[in-house]
Amino acid sequence: MKISRSRFVRSLALASALAALPVVALTGTASAQATPSADGITVYNAQHASLTKEWVERFTRETGIKVTVRNGSDMELGNQIVQEGAASPADVFLTENSPAMALVDNAGLFAPLGAETLAPVPESFRPANGHWVGIAARSTVFAYNTGKLTQDKLPKSLLDLANPDWKGRWAASPAGADFQAIVGALLQLKGEAATASWLKAMKENAKPYRGNSVAMKAVNAGEVEGAVIYHYYYIGDQARTGGENSKNVALHYFRNGDPGAFVSISGAGMLASSKNKREAEAFVKFLTGKGGQEVLRDGDSYEYAVGGGIASNAKLEPLDKLQAPKVKPEALNNKAVTDLMTAAGLL
Q1: Would residue 118 count as lying in a domain?
Q2: Residue 187 main-chain phi, psi, to 5 deg
Q3: Fewest CB atoms less than 10 Å from the CB: which of 51, 221, 285, 292?
Q4: Is residue 189 domain-shared with residue 303, that is, in the same domain?
C-alpha cells in the first residue's frame, strides 16, 4: 500500500514525540534498580533518625538514588502532610506508629503500593487497602523494678493498672505517640466506655513522664514500681550501656491477646503527589525486603523485623511468642484517643 509523503512525515513526527516522552513507572512496578532522578526523593521521617539513616545509606549505596530526610514526630509530620495536600514535597512518609499513617490515608493522600512491595510483609502488619505497609514493629511491655516487684505480684493485664491498689505505683508517657498508639489499641479492642474508664483511673494512679526512656529511668531509680513502655528502650539500654538506666529493671510481657500485648507497627507510604514515584516505591520496596529488614536484624534499633523473611534481632523476645491481640492498624484513631485522654485530664 502506497503511503503519501505528508502522512509519512506526520508518522515520523509522532514517533519522535513519543520517544521524547519521559518513562513513568506504573504504581506497583517500581524496582530498586530504577534509574535515579537528579533530585532523588524526599522522606518525611518520624522513625528514629538513626535507624532511618542506616536505611537510607544502604539504599543509596545499592541504588544510587539520593534521599533527603526531614525528621519530625508521627502526628506532627502526618498533620503537615494533610495540610500540604497535593502540594506536599514529600515522596515517602515513615512513622514509628501507625495512627499517623491512618491519618494521611484517610485524607486520600497515599498512592497504592504494588504487589511486589507489599508481598514480603504478612497481612497482619499492613492495612487491607495496600496504601501503606509495615516496615518494623515494637511490643508493649511493663518494665518493672525487680527490687520492688516479684513476678507473682505483676499485673496480669494492662487493665489491672486501673485498680486502686496501683495508685502511685506505675508510670507512662501519655503525651507521646507511643503511648497514644497503645491507647488506640485499647479503644479498638475494648470500646470507648472501657477505655474512658481506664484513662480516668490512669489519671489517678499513674505518674506521668516525658518519654519512655525517662519513665524507664524512674523505674530503675525506684521512683515507681513499673512503667508501660515499648520493649526496645530496655533492650537498647542493656546492649549499649550494660544497663546504666535499667540495671534494676526487667520486662513483663502480658501476652494472651491482652491490650497490654499490643504490637505497634511502623509504617511506610508513598505520597500520591510524589513526582518521583519510581524512586519512591523503590525505597519502600527496599524497606519491606531483605535489605531493609536486615538493617533491623543486624543493627542496634532493636525493633522487630516484619518482612523479607528476615528474623528479628536475636536479643528480642520472639515475635510469634508475644501472643499479641489482633488490631487493625488502619483503624487506630488518634483523634478519638487524644479526645478521650484530654477528657481524662491526661493531656
Answers
A1: yes
A2: -60, -45
A3: 221
A4: no
Q: What's the pLDDT tens digit per position in 247-270?
A: 999 999 999 999 999 999 999 999
Dig out the grid coordinates for 126 from the structure. Answer: 499492613
| Residue 219 structural domain | 138-262+333-343
- Residue 3 located in a structural domain: no
Would you list the DSSP string of 295-309? Answer: HHHHSSS-PBP-STT
Q: What is the CATH classification number for the domain harbouring 291?
A: 3.40.190.10
Question: pLDDT by residue (tens digit) across 189-232?
Answer: 999 999 999 999 999 999 999 999 999 999 999 999 999 999 99
Classify residue 131: in a domain, yes or no: yes
Q: Check the annotation: does 223 bind a ligand.
A: no
The reported pTM is: 0.87
- Known binding residue 317? Answer is no
Q: Is residue 19 part of a domain?
A: no
232 is in an annotated binding site: yes
